[in-house]
Design a protein that fits this description.
The chain is built from three helices and seven strands. By secondary structure, it is of the alpha+beta class. The chain has a single domain, classed as Alpha-D-Glucose-1,6-Bisphosphate, Chain A, domain 4 (2-Layer Sandwich). The chain has a seven-stranded antiparallel β-sheet with strand order 1-7-6-5-4-3-2. One of its GO terms (molecular function) is signaling receptor activity. This is Bet v I/Major latex protein.
Length: 156
């Protein structure tokens, strides 16, 4: 079974400013600092924020029912402003998902604004199809809104 969810947010900031945060480890640090009800902490298992980086993310006890998972940065395209991460251990993989990919795209709109598009793509075993209802774009929307607020509050 395949599925996909996506959401877009217009941000009043340069695409390069948004990309500077989401293409690096700054995003994980900002999420932990600003919205600990999503991710309480993270560890860098491997890498420096580029392709191949593996993070272990620890989730809020009020979260989706699992306490942690590991994700790997599989694409960080500085020209197209696209970053992809895949869950490689734990989390949704423990409840029947065989693939869970998150893609962030930044689309420059000029004049100090951009669109941040977040997409979740997943595959799962048919016998676990009921768990597809657990997939939610809401945490990514919270992250996008948090980055937007942070950029607004930290303009030079």
């Amino acid at each position: 079974m395949l599925g996909q969810l996506s959401s877009e947010l217009k941000i009043s900031a340069e695409a390069s400013q948004v990309w500077e945060i989401i293409s690096t480890l700054k995003l994980a640090k900002l999420v932990v600092e600003e919205i600990p009800d999503v991710v309480t902490k993270f560890d860098v298992v491997e890498g420096d924020g580029g392709v191949g980086t593996v993070l272990k993310l620890y989730l809020s006890p009020d979260g989706p029912g699992f306490s942690s998972y590991s994700e790997k940065f599989t694409k960080v395209d500085h020209e197209k402003l696209v970053k992809e991460t895949e869950v490689v251990e734990g989390g949704v993989l423990d409840i029947g998902f065989t693939k869970y990919l998150i893609r962030f795209e930044v689309i420059d709109k000029g004049e100090g604004s951009c669109i941040w598009k977040s997409t979740i793509e997943y595959e799962m075993k048919e016998e676990f199809a009921a768990n597809a209802s657990l997939v939610s774009i809401k945490p990514l929307e919270s992250i996008m809104e948090t980055v937007e607020k942070w950029l607004t509050n930290h303009k030079a």
